[in-house]
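## retry 2 of 3
previous attempt timed out at serialization; input unchanged, resubmitting
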Amino acid sequence: MTSAGAFELRGAGVVLIHGKAGGQGPLQPLAQALKARGATVVLPRMSWTSGYRTYEQTLGEVQAAVSRLKAGGASRIVLAGHSLGANISMGYAARVGGVDAVVALAPGHRPDFIASQTGESLGQAKAMVAAGQGAQKAKFLDFNQGRTFPITTTAEAYLNFFDPSGPAAQAAQASGVRVPTLWVIGTGDRPAMNDRAAYSGTRLVVEADHQTTPRVAVAEVIDWLQKQ
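## retry succeeded, writing output
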């Protein structure tokens, strides 16, 4: 951040991290708006589109994008994530650091909430890890926007993302995040609206649902960044 209190977007690097099912489409309007103001933007394709890796490996995917921006001369780094991408943005800011601001757009993936739907899979994954089979792949239940569906991943990776005491659960609470943070919640996004997490930072409510929140909030996100 600048001493004058204004975030100069020209020269900033922004990593836009997509959600679990929506792909990069919801983030494209924000990407274009940021680019128009001089920011360099990257939209990595996250591995959870085909299956989860461990949380640390997933943070490594973000780190590769951050390193690319820094190598290109970015003087400040912003992470902006949609849904599960918001979780990873928080996790990266807390565990890796080196970022100047975080934007959580329609934050999703709360393991403490999801556990009621995935308890059997959690038990299966814990048993596999206890038996020394954490690196072995199996079928588990995932949960997104009110529906469950099967995924194939390793037991260790599954626990990282779905255990209520794991790293994804800590990130959902923004535990350890020490940089300016903007939470953007859509009025039609019931899980996010009902979330009682202790938000650290600025909470903004917009007229949108889970998928449209990133599109609706473009102007507000740009304005917030420029005022930091």
